[in-house]
Amino acid sequence: MATVIDGKAVAAGVIAQVSEASASLREKTGAPPGLAVVIVGDDPASHVYVSSKSRMAKQCGFKSVQHTLPESTSQTELEDLVQSLNQDPEIHGVLVQLPLPGHLESDPVIQSIRPEKDVDGLHVVNAGKLMTGDLDGGLISCTPAGAMLFVRQTHGADLSGLNAVVIGRSNLFGKPMAALLLAANATVTTAHSRTKDLAGVCRNADILVAAVGRPQMVRSDWVKPGATVIDVGINRIDAPERGEGKTRLVGDVAFDEVAEVAAAITPVPGGVGPMTIAMLMANTVTAAMRANNMTPPSF
Ligand code: GUN
User: Fold this and answer.
1) Atom nearest to 95 CA in ligand 1
2) Most buried residue among 9, 93, 224, 242 by CB atoms closer than 10 A?
3) What is the spatial distance between Cα 95 and Cα 120, in angstroms, rounded to a whole number?
């Protein structure tokens, strides 16, 4: 049976580090790190995520500002708000929750955030720094940064000689995750829906990272014995065994059977999820300390 990686405990460690850094910034400058989270429309899942981000920011001693805009918000109104947050010296991090309602284009909004305040790591400047191996100069997308912390805890900082497979190629996760693994010297394959013999490719992985959004797709016969398996999926499925109309959350990995084969595995919930919020707080305190010529902690 694999070791189950405790995301809540690792995230709590990051939050403790963030809170300490936040206090030292406040002591030096008189002002806390400031995080602004922008949400447009009524998507219930996005509101749950945003509330927990705002709550955690307060817990870390940040100035936490939430802008809740109606579904009818125009592109210009949203970009004007981002501009005002870019100019606000008390705000060090700006996050626009995705997806935006259909009539809004997300890319111009994301690219209009000042790269120094782009705590989601989605601006091309930050993505470019990561791709060119500058891991300390920019801001790294929160979920891959969190997943990488698990990999480092399990294998150390140098992944020389290890094969890593990332299933998924999104800008938010798959591409930055592959770049982080490569920067740590792993031999990296980015697999996706068009990959031939996906199971065979996965069986080659010492580190297997699944981010496809298909419930329990990765089965035990896809996994090399002794592998580390990081499950980034969060899928809600029907759970009639819990009663009529009930649902439960599962990842992209068939946890019970894969845990019999892997050496280490992240659960869903309680694995990567808590790390995403923790790394958002880490990015915010990092941005705030850099803005005040202080050296941020390494996470
Ligand atoms: N929606 C789902 N995940 C994320 C994320 O990491 N950042 C933003 N901005 N929106 C999201």
Assistant:
1) 9
2) 93
3) 6
